[in-house]
Write a structure and sequence with these properties.
Number of helices: 13
CATH class: Alpha Beta
Helix content: 25-40%
Distance between the termini: 56 Å
Mean pLDDT: 92
Strand content: 25-35%
Oligomer: single chain
Structural class: alpha/beta
Length: 410
Amino acid sequence: MSSSTQRVERLVVGGGIGGLAAALAMARRGMAVHVIERAPAFEEIGAGIQLAPNASRVLDRLGILEAVEADAVKPPMATLMNAETGQRIAAIDFGKRFLKLYGYPYIVTHRTDLLNAILRQCQASPLVTLEADKEVVSVEDGDDSASVACADGTRYEARALVGADGIWSVVRRHIVGDGDPAYVGDVAYRGTIPTRAMPDRAATENLTWWIGPSMHLIQYPVRRRELLNQVIVFTAEGSSTGQDPQDWGPPEEIDARFQGKAEPVREAAKLIDRTRRWVLRDRAPVENWTRGRATLLGDAAHPMVQYLAQGACQAIEDAEALAQSLDSHRGDVRSALLAYQAARIPRTSAAQVWGRRMGEIVHADGLLAAVRDELLGGRDMGDFRYVDWLYGYRPGLGGNVLADTGKRGL
């Protein structure tokens, strides 16, 4: 062993929302954990993020929900709007009935605010060690440990290794080895604008989802309603012509895609931040993401398209489930990691598959769109049957929690 090798009990590779949540969840159970992050600092890229009750519930257990809520917004409802006609298709009321059923609110916030709330608690814990500017380049198995090598020459050996290093995970390459993630054909632009710049009051109050043929727009307020988060997604023309994916969906294609849409949609598209474009990718579900003493979490394990707004929520669920499993299998890391993935893979696989299906549903055209609107139209705002499997879940208990409103319930 070289002098630059550090031996730790538990190592998390990746200091994003999922990785830090996992570290905090372990620390809350008295387990020491070391986190290394590739970037020079622990920070998030992006804008808004949605936290459904299944994530809020875990954040409460971690003792940070109040901190997250301080700068967040609880929209009164989510509305599904027809981007061509401007008419409302359906809505979900996030009010008293919703809170009584699930015990926790639906929250929208800025990704940076969420990460910082978790980061502060990790920094305050003597059981969590944080190191930035550590790029992992390789992973190896050992008899009683797993090890990683970093670009700067340092190495870490751990009795338990967690790859929370995102969709391009180096740890996944070692465990699964399934190549690059798949393109889905869509591109996204996202960013925030001052709320006062948007004249449509509904857009600044609710979570609003405008849907149309091969496109959608999502709007919701963040940071105490001072900012409006906007995300536009559309199927790139180049995705069907063999064009290099890195050239898909240039800014000028936004205007073509949103021409002829309802006025609120056209106006929102004019205000979208066009300086950064995301070419959307995901992976198919896998039956195994654990090898020896190493496992995966979040986007490293189950990257999914954003149409269910569950990517971060599932990573937060992973964090709680992993910590529970490590705690209940003390001294047997291999069994703990296998139990963790057995609990999580069926659920995250369903979220991955339904994320793709939801994209097909909201981007539908013609007869399929008409059938969709007819089926959803007129539905009671208090009918949660389509989201219950997501929002009523509690990690570790394997099921729905409708009988348990939680300590914050009405």
